[in-house]
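User: I've been trying to design a sequence by hand for this structure and keep getting stuck. Would you show me what you'd pick, starting by listing the structure so we're on the same page?

Assistant: Good idea, let's start from the same input. This is the structure you sent:
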C-alpha cells in the first residue's frame, strides 16, 4: 500500500506543476499534460504548447508573445493580465 501511495504522489507532482516566476523562453511544452499548472509571472515568449492539456492552469501576469496553443486543451484555463501579443508577419 505504501508503494501505491508513493507512486500516486509522484504522478500528482508531475501533473500539478508550478512553473511560476521562471524564464521559459522558447520552451517545448508540446503534447504535455499539466492540469492545474501555474505559469504565473513567467516569460513564455515563443513557447510551444501544441497538443497539450492545460486544463485549469493559470497564466497570470505572464508574457506569452508569439506562443503556440495549436490544438491545446485550455478548458478552465485562466489568462489574467497576460500578454498575448502575436507578431503579424506581412
Amino acid at each position: 500500500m505504501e508503494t501505491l501511495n508513493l507512486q500516486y504522489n509522484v504522478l500528482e507532482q508531475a501533473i500539478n506543476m508550478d512553473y511560476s516566476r521562471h524564464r521559459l523562453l522558447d520552451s517545448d511544452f508540446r503534447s504535455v499534460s499539466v492540469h492545474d499548472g501555474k505559469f504565473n509571472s513567467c516569460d513564455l515568449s515563443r513557447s510551444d504548447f501544441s497538443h497539450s492539456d492545460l486544463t485549469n492552469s493559470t497564466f497570470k501576469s505572464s508574457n506569452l508573445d508569439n506562443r503556440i496553443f495549436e490544438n491545446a486543451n485550455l478548458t478552465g484555463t485562466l489568462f489574467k493580465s497576460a500578454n498575448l501579443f502575436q507578431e503579424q508577419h506581412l
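That's my pick for every position. To get oriented when you compare it with your attempt: Confidence is low (pLDDT under 50) at residues 1-6. DSSP finds one helix and two strands in the chain.
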